[in-house]
Structures are given as C-alpha cells and as structure tokens.
C-alpha cells in the first residue's frame, strides 16, 4: 500500500475545523478498502493492533493553532507531546519526495479580525485541502509500504489518543462558534431595534419638515400681503408727512406762545410754593408757640398752687337741636374762653321795649367744644398723669349736672359701645403709666401698682371690686379693663326724668404707685385719683321719689359740702369743713394737701339746662381761684442701703 508511510499522526488539525478528523478517518477507510490490511481507527483510547504490516513514521508536519487574538499559530507536533515513536527510514529512492511532502511548510495564514469567523473558516478549509493532497500522496505510497504497517499499528495507540483530543477540541470550537452566533444574533436584534428607533425619529422629523414647509408657504403668502400693505402705507405716509410738516410749523408758533405762558406759570408756582412754605413755617411756629404757652401756663398754675379747671361741653342730642334759644361761642385763637349767648326776649320786664341779648363769658385753663375726641382731651391731662410716676399725688375729678357727660369722660361709653377711640380717661391714664414704666425700667426703675375702686352711696363707702383686700395688684393695662367692667356692674345707677342712666353715687378710682431705682437707690410713692362725681339735680326737674329722692338729697348734700370747702379755701379760712361729708373727707388730700389737682366741669348745652350749666360754670370759676399750695414730690433716697 503506497502513501501510508507519510500518514503522520502529528499532522496539524485546526480545532475550528470539526470535519478534519472525519476526513482523515475516511482516507484511512479508503486505503483499507483498496486491499490493505489497515483498519479504520476508533475514537477510543484503547489500543488495538491493526492487521497490517508496520510502517515507518515520517516527520510530523507543524500543527497550527489559534491565539487569544484569533490568529493562527504553529503548535509543536503531537509527537513531541506523546510517546516517542521508532523511526523507520523510507527507501532511498522515495525519501526525498516524502520529506518534501511531510516537511513542506504551511502557507502563512493572514491575520484576520476576531469577529471574521467566516474568513477564518475559509482559511481552515484551504489548509484542509492541502492536507488532502498530502493524504492522496501518502495513499499511493501506502501500497508499497505494507511491510511497514506493523510499525503504524504501534503508533495507532498514540494516534487514537490524539484523535480523541481532536474530537474534544472540535467540540470546544463548535461551542465557541455557537456562542459567537448567539452573540451575533443578539447584536443583530439590538441593531434592528436601534434602526427601528432611528426610522421613527426620521418619520417624526419628516412630519415636522412637512409642517415647516406648510408654514413657510403660509409665511410667504403673508409676506406678499404685507408688501402690498407696505406699498399702500408708504403712499399714506407721504400724505401724512406733508400734513406733519404743516402741523410742525403751526406747533412752532404755538410753542413760542406756550413757552411764554409756561414761564409765567412757573413764576406763579414758585411764588405759591414760597407762600406755602411760609404758611407751613408759621403754622409750625404757631403750634410750637401754643405748646410753649400751654406749658408755661401749666407751670404758672403749679407755681400759683391753683386747681386747674377744664371745661367740656357735650354735643346736643337730637331732641335738643331744635331749641336754638341758647348758643355757645368759641374763639378760634383762644381755647381757654367761651361765651354763652341767650336769645333776646320779645319784651323786657316792663313790657315797653325789647330786652337785650344776654351773654355770659367764662375763662378756664382749657375749653373743649362739642365734638372733641377722648384722645384730644387726654392729650391735655397726660402730663398731669405722668406726675404720678414722678412721686406726686395727682387728682382728676369730673363735676357737673346729671347727664352732662362726666361718666363718659372718665370711664367711656357702655361696654357694648366701647371702642379703642372712645376709651375714658381712667383706661388711658393707666395705659400711659404702664408704658412709661416700661421705658423707665431701662434706667433702673421698678414699679408696683395697686388699684382700688370705691363709691360713696348715701354717705356710705362701698368697695365696687368686692375684694377682701384694700387694693388689687395690677400688672398690666388689661387687668384694669377687667376691674372697670366689674366695678360698672356693681355701681349704683338709676333712671330719672333728666337722665335714663344716672349715676347715683360718687365713684373714686385710686392707683397707688411704688417705685424704686436699683441704681440710685431712690424711691417714690405716688397716688393717682380719678373721680366721677354724681350729678347735681333739681327735684322739680328730676321728680325723684322714694330711693331716688334719698339718693338725690345725699348727692346734693355732698356737693354742697364740696362747695363749702371750696369757699373756705378761696377765703383762706383757718377751718376747712372736710368732715362734713364723706366726699370732702375723701378729697381732703387732693383739695388741701400735697397734690396736683385738675377738675373737669362737664356742662350740657341744652337750653333747658341753662341754669344748672351757669351754676356749674360759676362753681368751676371758684374752684379755679382756690390756692392749695405748690405740690411736692414724695421722693426719697435710702441712705442706709
């Protein structure tokens, strides 16, 4: 059998060519079928002898393998990895040809990328074709080399092992090819998805492009229309320009006239501004002068020691407006004087001629006409209230006939009508004292306050707060509001012919102040008395009976005693009858002691109350003339601390 001698078990086998082993086996089968005793090799590792003569093995051809990068490289022949085989020299005539075929170098493989599986397979097929040519040549030699078949059988066992290894390598390569195919399929699916997405975007862009083309066509038509309008507008503009030139000429003439008028107008405005500034300066100076006059007047009154008197006239009610027989006149420049003018009678007492007008002139420290607000009234007494924090005894009381507005002045309106603007003097005075004490705390002063509210009803002193202690501690102005509400509920009131809600007692609100300066160790004690006297009444007008009669008699008696005390003070009598009444006894420190005292005389402007009004005003003039001495501060310094 010719050609078997060159069937080298170390022939190169590419693992990427799973069919290479099968081709080699087929060649062996063909050789066997041609009359040789060579049997088909098996894939098992068992060693079986072939029924043929031994053949001498030839030099193994270089084995080709694949690197990690995918390129084909030469591997060492299988003979170097298996057992050594005996070398049988071929006949001399054919040795050179065999060596030429067995040792011919393989064609150099071109380097292909790792992903070019198809190219790599083609290279393997080319290589396999070359091997096939060698196999054919070896088959021709196999006929003449039957004698060497025995030697080949000795090599069979080693060849079987290599064949098994080739099978394993082939299976590994098949798995790798399958994995590569799976990766290629996955990448193809991914690329198809991306292509679909790109196609969708292209469709969207194409739609937008079509819309833009439509809009472009519309814009072109609009531009054509605007060009037409522009040509028409240009013609109109020429006409308007001509009219404008004519108008400018007329405007130039008018501008010269208006400039002249504007200059004169600016001169007038400058003069008006100068006059306004002068008026503003004079008004400010007048207010400053009035403030200086008021302070100087108060200082003079304090130095004289007189009781200051403020007169307040309440507004007329709806039923009193119709009677205009009495009028009240107030000076615009002097807020301390007032005149009461009575309408003339038709005849005098003799009945012979018209009676002249009667005019009554009064002058006090301050006169508040009807319509004066509670805030304006308190603004005049705020400095007097401040004196309580300076250690002075301060007393403010309201006097007047019933229904003249005393309770409204001191306490404000009833609870359901009360607002922030119409609060009375008591609430405002307490609020100012607390606010001032907060500011004085920065200078080291600490104050404590105690409040009491009593009434003198039928010559009996009653506590309106119904408290067990003589005074209630006060820590805030809101606490005073609660005390006033409680006192108003307990105070004696009644209805008469002259007043539907008449106070039937004298109420006395007293706030005791105790202060100490932690820095200078100076301490002060002050008292603020705010008194609402019951109104004087005439029995023939009030028509009081029963309890109202007893109350009227007690009120008139206490007010009469107050008049006696005022008269004694005015005459500088040695004995002042303070003990004739609980009212005068309670006001003893305010009228004749170390105190700053102010009296509100409240009057009714109604013509029907003229007589009582005149009596109240005349009494107030007597009070204004009383000299009770200069008040002194109750301040002292603790020298032992």
Written overview of the protein:
This protein has helices at residues 20-33, 78-81, 92-102, 117-144, 149-304, 374-389, 406-411, 425-440, 477-490, 539-542, 547-570, 582-586, 588-592, 610-624, and strands at 63-66, 72-75, 308-313, 326-330, 337-342, 358-363, 366-368, 393-400, 445-457, 460-463, 472-474, 493-494, 502-503, 506-517, 522-532, 596-603, 635-637. It is an alpha+beta fold. Helix 6 packs across helix 8. Helices cover 50% and strands 16% of the residues. It has 14 helices and 17 strands. A hairpin with a 7-residue loop joins strand 12 and strand 13 (502-503).
Features:
three-stranded antiparallel β-sheet; 641 residues; ten-stranded mixed β-sheet; elongated; 17 strands; 50% helix; alpha+beta; 14 helices; disordered N terminus
Q: What class, by secondary structure content?
A: alpha+beta
Helix content: 40-55%
Q: Give the integer mean of the pLDDT values.
A: 76
Please state the CA-atom Rg, rounded to the nearest Å: 67 Å
In the predicted model, the low-confidence regions spanning at least 5 consecutive residues are 1-23, 28-108
Major sheet description: 10 strands, mixed
What is the number of helical segments per DSSP (H or I, 4+ residues)? 14
Strand content: 15-25%
Global outline: elongated
Give the termini distance in whole angstroms. 146 Å
Number of strands: 17
């Amino acid at each position: 059998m010719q050609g078997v001698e060159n069937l080298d078990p170390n022939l190169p086998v590419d693992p990427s060519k799973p069919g290479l082993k099968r081709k080699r086996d087929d060649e062996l089968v063909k050789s066997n079928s041609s009359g040789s005793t060579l049997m088909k090799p098996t894939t098992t590792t068992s060693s079986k002898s072939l029924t043929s003569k031994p053949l001498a093995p030839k030099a193994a051809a270089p084995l080709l393998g694949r690197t990690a990068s995918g390129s084909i490289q030469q591997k060492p022949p299988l003979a170097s990895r298996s057992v050594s085989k005996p070398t049988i020299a071929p006949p001399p005539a054919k040795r050179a040809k065999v060596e030429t075929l067995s040792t011919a170098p393989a064609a150099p493989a071109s380097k292909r990328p790792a992903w070019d599986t198809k190219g790599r397979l083609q290279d393997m097929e080319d290589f396999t074709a070359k091997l096939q040519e060698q196999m054919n040549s070896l088959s021709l030699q196999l006929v003449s080399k039957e004698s060497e078949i025995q030697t080949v059988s000795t090599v069979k066992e080693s060849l079987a092992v290599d064949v098994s290894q080739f099978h394993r390598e082939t299976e590994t390569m098949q798995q790798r090819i399958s994995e590569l195919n799976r990766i290629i399929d996955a990448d193809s699916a991914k690329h198809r998805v991306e292509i679909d997405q790109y196609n969708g975007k292209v469709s969207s862009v194409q739609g937008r492009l079509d819309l833009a083309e439509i809009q472009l066509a519309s814009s072109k038509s609009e531009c054509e229309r605007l060009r037409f309008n522009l040509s028409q507008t240009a013609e109109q503009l020429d006409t308007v320009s001509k009219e404008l030139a004519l108008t400018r000429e007329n405007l130039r003439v008018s501008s010269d006239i208006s400039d002249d008028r504007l200059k004169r107008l600016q001169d007038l405005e400058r003069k008006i501004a100068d006059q306004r500034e002068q008026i503003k300066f004079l008004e400010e100076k007048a207010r400053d002068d009035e403030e200086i006059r008021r302070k100087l007047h108060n200082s003079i009154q304090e130095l004289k020691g007189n009781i200051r008197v403020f007169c307040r006239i309440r507004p007329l009610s709806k039923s009193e407006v119709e009677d205009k027989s009495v009028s009240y006149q107030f000076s615009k420049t002097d807020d301390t004087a007032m005149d009461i003018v009575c309408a003339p009678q038709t005849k005098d007492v003799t009945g012979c001629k018209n009676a002249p007008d009667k005019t009554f002139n009064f002058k006090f420290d301050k006169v508040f006409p009807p319509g004066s607000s509670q805030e304006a009234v308190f603004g005049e007494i705020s400095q007097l209230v401040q004196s309580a924090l300076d250690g002075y005894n301060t007393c403010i009381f309201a006097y007047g006939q019933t229904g003249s507005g005393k309770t409204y002045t001191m306490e404000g309106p009833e609870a359901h009508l009360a607002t922030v603007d119409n609060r009375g003097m008591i609430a405002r005075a307490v609020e100012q004292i607390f606010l001032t004490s907060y500011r004085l705390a920065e200078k080291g002063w600490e104050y404590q306050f105690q409040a009491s509210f009593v009434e003198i009803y039928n010559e009996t002193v009653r506590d309106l707060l119904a408290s067990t202690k003589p005074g209630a501690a006060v820590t805030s102005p809101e606490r005073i509001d609660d005390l006033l509400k409680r006192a108003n509920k307990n105070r004696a009131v009644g209805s008469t012919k002259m007043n539907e809600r008449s106070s039937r007692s004298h109420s006395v609100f007293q706030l005791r102040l105790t202060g100490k300066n932690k820095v200078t160790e100076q301490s002060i004690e002050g008292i603020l008395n705010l008194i609402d006297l019951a109104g004087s009444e005439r029995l023939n007008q009030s028509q009081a009976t029963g309890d109202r009669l007893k109350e009227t008699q007690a009120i008139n008696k206490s007010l009469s005693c107050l008049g006696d005390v005022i008269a004694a003070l005015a005459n500088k009598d040695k004995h002042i009858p303070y003990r004739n009444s609980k009212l005068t006894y309670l006001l003893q420190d305010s009228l004749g002691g170390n105190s700053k005292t102010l009296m509100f005389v409240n009057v009714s402007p109604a013509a029907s109350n003229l007589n009582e009004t005149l009596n109240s005003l005349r009494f107030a003039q007597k009070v204004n003339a009383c000299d009770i001495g200069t008040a002194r501060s109750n301040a002292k310094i603790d020298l032992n601390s």
